[in-house]
């Protein structure tokens, strides 16, 4: 049975209150936070007091409340500290430094070896990136934590890369390896989870509770948010949609099975579609990301092969997504990842038509379908958000010690 | 954003505490409830006081606590009131009367017309059933509520049968129609949701938080529990797994599409498999439920067609389930419904092998897979559980009025 301690509930409320401040266009009042979260004013006042004391929020002026007592406005205290978000991809590592409001301060991309990438190569690239950014910032605020996204299956608690699809790693204790060389708290997860959390804090997830995020890159996955929380499943592998069978006896997939969704709508799948349409197509390129970019540009100028490649991708994507939507009946579906970034509106529009033809009426009734609106790289942003969530969980700052300190101070204030 | 008020949290805690008492083999102490739910002892003591006062729980002796103060034991107060669970199926309506411990007291099954079933026919059958059971119980406890399960899409808040797949109804206000003739609170939902709730309170869901329940009857669905709560989706249609495409261009489905899961593993799908194997098979019968029963018996004695029909059903079921499991990564998968009841262990065993060959290692790692252990009819039991949940939500009994009454009494006790 689910165990939800008072501590869990308090943590969840703290997240919700802070997400609400992040989601707002400008500073907000405690009353607005209470209205948006459904929490009582007293609870919100308590959470805000805690976040103000920890320096995560700051007072940001007052609003006129029509003759009543003016209400204090709150904003994220961007200068409180920095967060690092790291996106380990197949050929490179992107390291980004954020302020506490999750605005990018600096960004660097480091290449990985072309072949035979070992754990040490990844660790070296990350450490070089983080140290470079820290040095460059000079007297900048302390780094409160770093989140690392690495493809494949991740065991979060232990910080282990259980399996990497690109390099066929097994059970690499990546967090321990990094902890030997980096001083800040480290959080490990995969790009699907990172991208979904970014969407929850900064994209379509600000508006809804139940959300699916389809991420189309070299791999394909469906990030799942239920009741405003990331759904991970029993072993943190929920959302493995890429290897759902779409075409029985269809294309071979790198997983060894046939006809998987990923074999059709990933960068590799789209490159293969182009090759099937015209084996001599000038759109082909050894770099599959480049193929997708070329298809996008060529389709825009009416190139027949590119137009047909987009149409076929939309058909496969729409049929697969319709089944997924019938199952989850979410409020919002978001399309993200390199493929969605490049193929954009035409892919969205054609996929929407296929979904409309295949999903059940009840599924379509409440659904919004859109491209990701998360700026920049959602994976490094999401990784940094994991670090923020970790900081909000920190017992020194938010645990019983801090509560005791606060109570003592309040008692003193009452007697003085 | 998710709104979880203090009221929501209190309701959820009340459900969890009570589910814990139901799940136990015998009476339990407050300490055991606190340990099982993760709630603090003080919170549990509070919830228990409320449930004792409402008469839902009763004191049931004491346990020896090894020299300490003896701990009071708690049990469900079965005599507090009765609940009704109603399973509206394609050809008949089953009405069952339960005590508050959800033990069946009486049960009746009423036939529906062979053709052209109208809403009035269903309402008449339900009212006849409920009145018959009420009369028979004579001076029995008051009926606290009735849950009605009806196939298809249900709009719960309004109590509307939005769409019925058997009778092609649209927007029938079933709860209003029933409320004109029945005096108790009424709760409407569908068999998939009812069966899943029964599994959560009385089956495999007692042990785990994340659960899938595959229900194979005339229709096929996947009931979803996330973090110990039923997942409904945006329009209460989550779990529509029956019309997931399993075989592109495959069998025609009654939904108008081709190759749906339901076209292979429902009672109708299995009858069709038998017909494809041998159009003259003595296993065939106009009643598709009967075909499945015959297949089960014939397979047990080694009949070649029956054995092959079970093997093909297991292959289709296993392939479809593997994709579903990769997506949800649940702790437990339960197989229920008429098909599972009849084909039982042989279907479970063969399906398990297919899943093992098709699902990802991370999916299989934490998974248990079993037949439903819910006794009797899980749909009417689940419907009665909705009525219990409704009663636990009742503001008169558990709301601020009751809390005020309690506080006043406690204040009086202190001063006297």
UniProtKB/TrEMBL annotation, chains A, B:
Pfam families: HTH_IclR, ROK. InterPro entries: ATPase_NBD, ROK, ROK_cs, Tscrpt_reg_IclR_N, WH-like_DNA-bd_sf, WH_DNA-bd_sf. Gene3D superfamilies: 3.30.420.40, Winged helix-like DNA-binding domain superfamily/Winged helix DNA-binding domain (1.10.10.10). Residues 15-59 form the HTH iclR-type domain. It comes from the Bacteria. Belongs to the ROK (NagC/XylR) family. This is ROK family protein.
